[in-house]
Structures
1.
Amino acid sequence: MANLVRWEPFRETVSLRDAMDRLFEQSLLRPFNGGSDFFRSMAVDMHETDDEIVVKAAVPGLKAEDVKVTLSGDVLTIAGEHKSESDKKETTYHLRERQYGTFSRSITLPAPVAGDKVNAEFENGVVTLTLPKAEEARPRTIKIKAKK
């Protein structure tokens, strides 16, 4: 004999709590746990004036000679490597979150720059690049002559 089960439409709805749990698991947790390049990239600030573009990149724990900066056309690339400390056989790690390996960040510049006049400075784990704009990219004031 077959049993009849009464259909209850609210039983099939998802609770708000379950929906929020799924949202956080899918959108926030995966990028950090999935071996993404989030921790391997660097924080960069870039601002522009009439005469130059200034880029600041945070590369904590590195020395100036460990960072490589290249400019190819309008693409600026900052690269380097965090070298792993030698593992000690008798050491037991309880927590190991620092990332090791190479990193690279390429940024498209908003205006053409004079590549031969770029200034690079390194202080306290921050690389500051001052890129003078090319003459054709600088704003000009044009005077208007009135006809009599």
2.
Amino acid sequence: MDAPNAFIEKPNPPSDAEVAEVLGPAAPLWTQLIQQVTSDAGKMTQEWKGVYVNKYGWSLRLKQKGRNIVYLTPCNGCFRVAFVLSDKAVKAASAAHLPKKVADALAVAPHYPEGTGLRLNVTRANDLPAIRKMAQIKLAN
């Protein structure tokens, strides 16, 4: 089950210090993932987005040339990573020999007109390589 967004009902985007505080031990993983995706993608922009913040809270979008690559949602003690994948990206991910947890999540991910919505929780360092691979697949497709 997904952990709730830590910044529901907060009227403004969270500061780096607020994010680090709610993430706790997952804060270095948040920073590491952002650095890895940025390193892989080249120039990226970061944008905090709050859609119906009273219900859903805030999430950080990593974007390349206006294209959303990955969504990061801070939760208490962990964070959620989300991708919206094209059919081509889903096919590439299915062939990428991802860990069972990620492959299973991809197999049951809902399909929307915009693409397939994959959401994963990050709680430990072992979660990052597969998420980085998913970001690389998204960038390539």
3.
Amino acid sequence: MKTAGDVLSALFGNDFVQTANKHSKLFDSWTDITAKNGIAAAAAHSRIKNLNNGILLIEMDHPGWKQILQTKQSKLLNDFRIRFPEMDISGISLMLAKPDSSKQPEDVIGQSEEICETSGTTIPSSVPPCENFTQPVNEENVAADIESIKDDELREKLLKLGQTIAARK
């Protein structure tokens, strides 16, 4: 039986997985970039929320942190441009979070993370350990693997997702 990672890789393809890895690295870099600019404490009160049309949206939990980030905005932008030149980041937009939108689920807070050796992706410790997904995926068997999923709702969603992706190709 294929793992969920195998099924998703078969459905989305390598280009999607590579793009997802780049975005993951961008989102994970927030702590390092704030620390480099002397505002490490800001990382605990803010986060990268989105990257859209070259604009990096940063969300924070208090107006005071917004002011602090505004003082370093041009340096932050420069660091993102240097670290991620392929993403064509042209600006940073700062916004206050809606109440409770910046909080993580209680079961994730304080848990450690590990680096998946096969992909280099940072994974919360609440996720089962990485496995080596080097065996090739036989796309003809993906539908059969999906059919073996016992959860009817999940199985239907995966089938619809596969159809949507196939229609876009």
